[in-house]
């Protein structure tokens, strides 16, 4: 199941907790890139889970101000801190991506919960809006729930 971590929770977590890593010279400097979008159907018939990997190659920290996905009615950021799970609308997010750092969402830190729309199909375009006015978009295939 995909999970979306609360942007507020992410901004208070040490970067290591959400898979934040320095690029080691691999990425293009000066750009913010939505490198990977994984979307999975969940057992919940109302929502799917999404995990993002975002690279901030700029010299300034950027804050995620919204996340939208085509075919979905809304996106929440879900964060897990210990045994507590926090849901927050993505447009109220305060997730910070430090300069020259990549973050990767996962089930046990933060992830996205996307409310299925009437036209939720096999593909989606995820758009991340940032505090500096940039918007980055990437396409993803919506995968079926993996059997346990």
Task: Give your account of this protein's structure.
- The protein is mostly beta strands and 148 residues long.
- The protein has one helix and eleven strands; from the N terminus they run αβββββββββββ.
- Strands 1, 2, 3, 4, 5, 6, 7, 8, 9, 10 and 11 form an eleven-stranded mixed beta sheet that branches.
- The model is unreliable at 1-19 (pLDDT under 50).
How many strands in all? 11
Head-to-tail CA distance between termini: 11 Å
Radius of gyration: 14 Å
Strand content: over 45%
Elements, N to C (H/E): HEEEEEEEEEEE
Percent of residues in helices: under 10%
Unreliable sequence segments: 1-19
The shape is: globular
- Main beta-sheet annotation: 11 strands, mixed
The number of helices is 1
Assign the structural class, choosing from mainly alpha, mainly beta, alpha/beta, alpha+beta, or little secondary structure.
mainly beta
On the 0-100 scale, what is the average pLDDT? 81
């Amino acid at each position: 199941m995909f999970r979306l971590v609360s942007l507020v929770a992410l901004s208070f977590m040490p970067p290591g907790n959400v898979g934040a890593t320095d690029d080691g010279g691999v990425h293009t400097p000066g750009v913010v890139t939505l490198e990977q979008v994984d979307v999975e159907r969940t057992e919940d018939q109302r929502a799917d889970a999404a995990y993002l990997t975002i690279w901030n190659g700029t010299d300034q920290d950027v804050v995620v101000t919204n996340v939208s996905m085509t075919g979905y009615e809304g996106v929440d950021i879900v964060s897990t801190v210990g045994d507590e799970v926090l849901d927050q609308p993505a447009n109220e997010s305060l997730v910070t991506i430090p300069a020259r750092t990549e973050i990767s969402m996962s089930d046990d830190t933060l992830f996205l919960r996307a409310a299925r729309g009437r036209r939720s199909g096999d593909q989606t375009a995820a758009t991340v809006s940032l505090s500096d006015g940039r918007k980055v978009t990437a396409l993803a295939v919506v995968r079926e729930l993996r059997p346990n």
